[in-house]
Amino acid sequence: MKVAIIGAGITGLTLAAALRRAGITCCVFERAASFRRIGAGIQLSPNAVRLLRRLGLDTELAGTAVRSDGVEVRHWKNGNVVSWIPLGDDCERLFGAPYYLMHRADLHNALVDLVPAGSVHLGSTCVEVIERDNGAQVVFADGSNITVDVVVGADGIGSTVRGSSFADEPHYSGQTVYRGLAPATAQAPFRDGERKSVIWVGEGKHVVSYPVAAGSLINIVAVTADEAWSRESWSTPARVGDARAAFAGWDTVVLDLISAADSLTKWGLHLRSGDFPWSGQFVTLAGDAAHPMLPFLAQGANQGIEDAMTLAGCLSQATFSDATLALQRYEQLRRPRVSAIQQYSAKPPTSQGTQALLDTAWIFGHDPLSEFNDG
What we know:
Layout: E1 2-6, H1 10-21, E2 25-30, E3 41-44, H2 46-54, H3 58-64, E4 66-67, E5 70-75, E6 81-86, H4 88-95, E7 100-103, H5 104-112, E8 120-122, E9 126-132, E10 135-140, E11 145-148, E12 150-153, H6 160-163, E13 171-183, E14 197-202, E15 205-212, E16 217-225, E17 236-238, H7 240-246, H8 252-260, E18 264-271, E19 283-285, H9 300-316, H10 323-345, H11 361-364
């Protein structure tokens, strides 16, 4: 069986690494011409950390991530602590893995190292995927094409693979996110090397910050209501002054963190219908391409990792003759879970309801590989 993965993000590279371990030939096609250190913070919950450890990333995660001791919820105006949600040893004892805070690029780099360099093709822009009688054809922007047994669209929220068979339109949610990184010297919420997330919650707004890159940087995510937004992009440059103005009157620690950011991007949160099929005969979707979700539960990347490991398990037990059945099984296993998580992810945190973030044994304790005899 030959598999083509479109997109070399976290989901695509996790799938490539898992398929390699299963002895399945795969190639990854990425439109970017090179891998650069882009993005900001990412939260890895135990359900994903356990899977990444199985791929051999235990040492890499421990070296670059920050093991979170918990989540501290503060009042938006005066910074008073409203509640504390423990993680740390309790999380590891209950779920068999820590809750990590890390720079997305650190995880991406670790996954790149698991995939043979010759199997990743940079500067390869997929423009269409066509299902044929004997497999799926991938057409690239330069006019070239390949035909393989299975194509997996791991190409994000604006997926070309999804668009080849299903047309959906993004709808602006009315919320915008400012994101950035500040040096750890701007560590007012993290004195003495505290390893935690801090959430300031206000009416219709909230700010999240936590240390990443082994504690050398602080990730900042500030969510606010905003006017109509035309671009479904997480990388639009933003001005620090605009972000400060959006949070005028908030705790001075929040404003100081925003001011300390090296740069900021502005991300308009969009909603997409989840009511579309992921899989055809020889094509399926994974990660944001299959189930785009709002970030309030911090499960987007985690669910992409679960997708990748589940799909690899299904394909490892299949042959070309029943590849379609393997894709159907994958979707049947994953769709109910991610649909439920999508619903939870659409709810912003509140000072009263933030505890619900940890009422999630059904999320943190889930093991998708338990579905397979080989574990």
